[in-house]
Amino acid sequence: MYNPEAKRRGHVPSSEILAIAVKPEYQGYGIGTELLNHIERIASQLGMERPLLHTAIENEVAVLFFHDASFTVIGKEEGCYSRGQAAFSMAKKIGAGHKVKGSFTS
User: Fold this and answer.
1) pLDDT surpassing 70 at residue 65
2) 73: β partners
3) Residue 9, pLDDT above cutoff 70
4) What 3-state DSSP class applies to 101?
5) Residue 54's beta-bridge partner residues?
6) At 26, is the secondary structure helix, strand, or coil?
7) Model confidence over 32-59: pLDDT tens digits?
8) Which residues contact 43 (CB under 8 A, 6 or more apart)?
9) Residue 69, CB half-sphere, CA atoms under 13 Å: how many?
10) Greatest CA separation found in the chain?
11) pLDDT > 50? residue 2
12) What is the rounded distance in angstroms from the CA atom of residue 10 to the CA atom of residue 75?
């Protein structure tokens, strides 16, 4: 829940994307981008300014996907997943009235 008082104290309202996936045979058609755009619009409408996520470092397709969507690496976590894989922590700045280019529903 958005807390304006927390923002006044210097905390950036954040949300976390826990999972986003598109079956390999459907990748490359903009489905993942549309899902991410929708998530960002909802987060922005709720007053969130910084979506966060983790993605396995070895998952080069996902790392590139999020990088292309303007997410930046803000950290690295060892043993983040059940099989012990390391993950990048990634974040992006969004804000109120966030506009998403190329969205079908904008």
Assistant:
1) yes
2) 90
3) no
4) coil
5) 89
6) helix
7) 999 999 999 999 888 889 999 999 999 9
8) 15, 51, 94, 98
9) 28
10) 46
11) no
12) 20
Q: Which residue shows structure tokens 């991410």? A: 36
Distance, in Å, from the CA atom of 17 to the CA atom of 96, rounded to the nearest integer, reads 18
Spatial neighbors of 94 by CB under 8 A, at least 6 apart, are: 40, 43, 44, 48, 49, 50, 51
pTM: 0.76
Phi, psi (5° rounding) for residue 92? -150, 145
In CATH, the number for domain 14-91 is: 3.40.630.30
Q: What pLDDT is attached to residue 104? A: 44
The amino acid at residue 14 is S
Task: Name the residue with tokens 């923002």.
Answer: 7
Distance CA 32, CA 83 (A): 25
For residues 75 and 92, what is the distance between their CA atoms, to the nearest angstrom? 13
**Res. 61: pLDDT tops 60:** yes
